[in-house]
Amino acid sequence: MAAPDFWDDNEKAQKTISELNAIKGVVEQFQTLSGEYDDLQVMVELEEEESDDSLAAEIGSGIKALVKKLEDFELQLLLNQPYDRLNAILELHPGAGGPRVRTGRRCCCACTAAGPRSVTSRSRSSTTCPATRPE
Q1: Taking the model in full, what pTM does it have?
Q2: What's the chain's Rg over C-alpha atoms?
Q3: Sheet bearing 125-128, strands edge to edge
Q4: In this structure, are residues 135 and 126 in contact, taking their beta carbons and an 8 Å threshold?
Q5: CA-to-CA distance for 118 and 109, rounded, in angstroms?
Q6: Residue 126 and residue 119: Cα distance in Å, rounded?
Q7: Percent of the chain at pLDDT above 70?
Q8: Interatomic CA distance for residues 26 and 76, integer angstroms
Q9: 108-120 as b/e, with b when 16 or more CB fall inside 10 Å?
Q10: Which of 43, 49, 78, 82 counts the highest number of beta carbons within 10 A?
């Protein structure tokens, strides 16, 4: 950006600045996560010296939160291609179906409080789902 001809091509300059800001964001997020990790290490050392149960609980919740943030950060790093930032629309279209669909019988599984149940539409009866039937 300090080059004298940097702003001659406005589109290229804006693209470069956008890329720079994205990289800065990743670096700042990494530094924040690194700082949280260091803080947790210090808390662990204090807990080992004092054997404080409330501090142990705080460390546990801090570790869980940090793991979640690290997983999100990892996903962000994996999805770093140009089109990964864009939204997507997903449509599912049913295919030809299996033998039960061709004979007119339709079967679907639904989860209930009692567990998975299978409902057959032709007989309108409810039976135990074949996938969960005890052997």
Answers
A1: 0.58
A2: 28
A3: 107-112, 115-120, 125-128
A4: no
A5: 5
A6: 5
A7: 70
A8: 9
A9: eeeeeeeeeebee
A10: 43
